[in-house]
Specification:
Shape: elongated
Helix content: over 70%
Order of helices and strands: HHH
Distance between the termini: 22 Å
Number of strands: 0
Largest sheet: none
Number of helices: 3
Number of domains: 1
Length: 74
């Protein structure tokens, strides 16, 4: 998310949409893998405990910009 603006400036719009899709797919995969990691009794949860807040912050940032784009920017 931090490097999305420099990437958008340096590349065309077609590649920018691929980057956004990659972010959404990665977020969904991260949530699914977090559920699997927390439900498994033998899995160590250290990395999952670090990745979960980062994923939740990422979801919050995506949600804010979707809300901002839908309500304020128009």
């Amino acid at each position: 998310m931090i490097l999305l603006d420099p990437i958008a400036v340096a590349i065309t719009e077609q590649v920018g949409s691929v980057v956004v899709i990659f972010i959404f797919v990665g977020t969904v995969a991260s949530v699914i893998l977090a559920i699997l990691a927390f439900s498994n009794q033998t899995e160590k949860k250290n990395i999952a405990m670090i990745a979960l807040p980062i994923t939740l912050i990422n979801i919050a940032v995506i949600g804010f910009f979707l809300w901002f784009g839908a309500n304020v920017a128009s």
